[in-house]
Amino acid sequence: MALAPAVTDLESLKGHPALARLLAWNASAVQGAKFDRGEMTVFVEREHIRQACVLLRDDAVCGFNFLADVTCVDWHPAEPRFEVVYHLLSIPNKERLRLKVRLNSGSPAIESVTSVWPGANYFEREVFDLFGIRFNGHPYLRRMLMPEDWEGYPLRKDYPVEGYR
Amino acid sequence: MAHLNPTPVLEPGQDRTMILNMGPQHPSTHGVLRVLLEIDGENVVRIMPDIGFLHTGIEKTCEAKFYQQVVPLTDRIDYLCPMTNNLCYVLAVEKLLGLEIPPKAQWLRVLLNELTRINSHLVWLGTHAMDIGAMTVFLYCFREREEILRMFEMVSGQRMMTSYFRVGGIALEPPLGFFDRVRDFAGYFPEKVDEYENLLTGNPIWLMRTKGVATITKEDAIALGASGPTMRGSGVDFDLRRDMPYSSYEKFQFKVPVAQDGDVFARYACRVAELRESIGIVRQALDGMPEGPIKADAPKVVLPDREKMKTEMEALIYHFKIITEGFAVPAGEVYQAVESPRGEMGYYVVSDGTAKPYRVHMRAACLANLQTLPTMCEGRLLADVVAAIGSIDIVLGEIDR
To answer: What is the greatest pairwise CA distance in chain B?
Structure first.
């Protein structure tokens, strides 16, 4: 069990092309970064997520042209409570990148990336359905897996596993 | 009483169109998919898949289980490729733990995963051909699938919900005679693929129903997040087994079938070619199967052998502790993707340092692939919708989770 400790120091990770590109574009958009178990994570400011995605998709060096997944993690009762997680894949470079956005519990909302990748549609709807996070600019933000009239958001940590009876 | 008056999700656009509801009980929607169609005569104007009928909340259930207890749940996500799901999950947890897996376990995993791929593709081929009207293929495919299910039963005791992989290795040594049986199967299977192809590939009715039908471009496929044969049928040359190898796939020789047309036939051609490649990988795995243990040397994570438990105090203690308390996984997060028969199957596992996963999320290949349906079908004929749904090979258990 030889696990190298996670690297979270922004300075020592600057060599990573995607992070370097984001920092060169707008250093204030990057909250931090983490390199752990061979996987790169970049924490992005909420306001800049869509622009960051456009940048990473269109950049010739990074080329993250494929959005593999959008999901969310609830860190209740900590604040900021939610982490929206984007898994990007670069098909030409065969490389992955994880983007994270932290959201407060008040009324969590974030800009949708459906205009960047239309494929984000179902993933964001699922996060809305199960976590109650609003994606502004989403073309059809409605419940998908749960019934239309369902109350509450099942994957939040304060929602009991057996449901409300 | 709101559930008695569901909000209509699609309104007719003009006077001449009508809304047609296909599913959730329609036989050609492969499970419980409901598709709302706005049609103008025979032409599809708009199409909207409606999912969620099979939602079981597996992601939530995982959070209440120990790490090793999640493995049986993963079978039930995509019931046509249980081993792929087992593999993806255990790889993710092993990555979190930093475990090294012995070569024999890795090769067995590859062998079983390729059998699973053949199993899943056979169900797809049979049902897809039946949707389009070729009944015979279904019976032929299920004949060979039955043999694979028997092999699964032999190795794991279960035909479908195998739960055979464990964090740190695999559950049991394969029984005597298993490898011979697989070798037999690998010997005669290519002829059977010829048989299916004889029935379909040159068949004029099949060609008319599939060539040029439900096309999707390379750019659209990437933008919509399609993966697997749905993406490779549109000319994207990308396969996780070759390009981002896991579980020692880099030691196997195989071609990645790619077709350029992006239509139903291209996706059919890719999958049939994959059947042949997969049986080639199975043969390589049989020939080069290394000797050695099937479990990692990590007593705090991997259950001890029965024999050891009877003679060694420590083994008994570890067994008791793993069963009652689980094993703690260092805090962190991991995204592990494998090439499932349908595309990129990904597990995102977050650990907070305890014995239960903090969050398990499955990236379902079918969920993303289903999004391509409107692009494929809008502006085309109603009958093509059935061909298109068959060609993206959806499993609703995986979509709804």
So the answer is: 80
Q: Which amino acid is at B269?
A: A
Q: Say if B167 is an interface residue toward chain A (CB within 8 Å).
A: no
Q: What is the mean pLDDT of each run of 10 residues along chain A (165 residues)?
A: 74 80 83 86 89 87 88 88 92 90 88 90 91 89 87 88 76
Q: Burial level of B388, CB count in 10 A (0-12/13-18/19+)?
A: buried
**Mutation target among B3, B9, B54, B60 for the A interface, most CBs of A within 10 A:** B60
ipTM, interface predicted TM-score of the complex: 0.91
For chain B, positions 235-264, list CB contacts with chain A under 8 A. 236, 238, 243-244
- B93 Cβ contact partners less than 8 Å away, ≥ 6 residues apart: B67, B167, B329, B334, B349
Q: Contact at 8 Å (CB) between A157 and B350?
A: no
Which candidate from A2, A37, A73 shows the least CB-CB separation from B95?
A37
| C-beta of residue B200 within 8 angstroms of C-beta of residue B137 | yes
Going from N- to C-terminal start, the domains of chain A cover 22-136
Neighbouring residues of B285: CB distance < 8 A, sequence distance ≥ 6: B107, B108, B110, B111, B114, B252
Kindly report the CATH number that applies to the domain delimited by A22-136: 3.30.460.80
> CB B181: neighbour CB atoms within 10 A?
16
Domain boundaries, chain B: 2-50, 58-400
CATH 3.30.565.10 applies to domain B58-400: no
Strands, E assignment, B41-84 = 43-50
